[in-house]
Amino acid sequence: MSLMPADWTSGTFLGRADFGEGPSPILVVRGELLDMSAVMPTVSALVEAGDFSGRGGKKLGAFDVASVNLLSPVDLQCVKACGVTFATSAIERVIEERARGDWSAAAAIRERLESRIGGQIRSVVPGSESAAQLKAALIEDGLWSQYLEVAIGPDAEVFTKSPVLSTVGVGAEIGVRSDSSWNNPEPEIALLVGSNGQAVGATLGNDVNLRDFEGRSALLLGKAKDNNASCSLGPLVRIFDDGFTIDDVRVAEVRLSITGEDQFVLRGTSNMAEISRDPLDLVRQTLSEHHYPDGFVLFLGTLFAPVQDRDEAGRGFTHKVGDVVTIESDKLGQLQNRVVTSRDAAPWRTGIAALYANLLSRGLLKA
C-alpha cells in the first residue's frame, strides 16, 4: 500500500507540511495540494473555520507525497487517548497489573484470565446490567481490576497522551524510553474534533506504550505514555464527507507490521467493529464537562496486544532499536516510523512560543 489510500484523489485531506520556512497547514482536495497558511496560520484555526474547500489557498499543483515534507497533521489541539476500549486489550492490561510489569509472569496469568473471562468480556456491553453482574462475579473470584472497571463499567478511560505540538509525523523516528524492557506500539485510529465537539475527520496513530512501567503501577501511566517522540500521527487527516464518514471508522481494519533489524517480523490486525464503545461516545466522554478551545485529537484504542515471542519462549514482544512500524488502513493510508530510544530521538523544540514566533516572522498572524 502507498502512503495515501487508493481513493485519495476523491477525498479531502488536512495536515501540515514544511516548505522550508516552517509549518504550514495544507489541504489535499481531490488530488490537488494547497498551502492554506495565508488563509489560516494553524490547522486548529482551519478546523474552527470549518471550510475545507481549499478556497483562498495557494495552489501547488498535483500532490506528490514523496516531494512534500509532511509533519504531524495536528498542531494546537490537545492530544487525548482512550484506553481499554477492546476486550483483548483489557485482558492484557490486567495481565500487566498482576505481573507487576514482569514479562516472565505474563503467560500463566494470560491463560487463567482467558479461561475465566475471555468469552464473557468480549460480549458484554460496558455499563449494562450484564456488565455489573460480571463485575460482581469477578470480585467474588478475586479477579477484579481497575482495568476491568474502565473496560466494562460506565466510564471510559480518557487520558492526555502527549503535550500540544509534541506529536511526530509519518517518516519520523518514534521513541521508546531507554530504560523500558517491555513495550509495544499501539496502532489506532484517531479522530480530529473541533471545539464544538464535532468530529471532522480521522487519521492513523501510534500510541506507544511501556508495559513494564504501567504494569508496576497505573500511577506511572504518564511515564508509560508521554515521552519524547512517543506519539505519531498521519499521514494526513481524512475529512468526513459523502465518501468517508464516521461509519467507515466504525468498521475500519487497522493493520500493523513490525520489521526488526534482527529479521523479526510481527503482523497484527485491529478491527474497529470489535470496539466496546462507539467512537462518538468516546468523544462525548472526552468532552465531559471540559472545554477544548483549540479542539482535540482522540486516540480510540486498539485491539492489538502483541504476545508473539521475540527472543525467548514466554517473553512475548518488546521493541528493539531499528524496528520499522507500519500502520495502515484502506481509507486512511499508511503511517510508518522507525523506533529509537526517546533519549536519542530528535528533541522536541517547537513549542507554542516557537510556533507563534515563526508565524509572526512569516507575517501569517492577523489581528
TrEMBL record:
Domain of life: Bacteria
All residue ranges annotated as the Fumarylacetoacetase-like C-terminal domain in the record: 156-340
Keywords (A to Z) from UniProt: Hydrolase, Metal-binding
A GO biological-process term: small molecule metabolic process
Pfam family, one: FAA_hydrolase
InterPro entries linked: FAH, Fumarylacetoacetase-like_C, Fumarylacetoacetase_C_sf
Protein name: Fumarylacetoacetate hydrolase
Originating species: Novosphingobium lindaniclasticum LE124
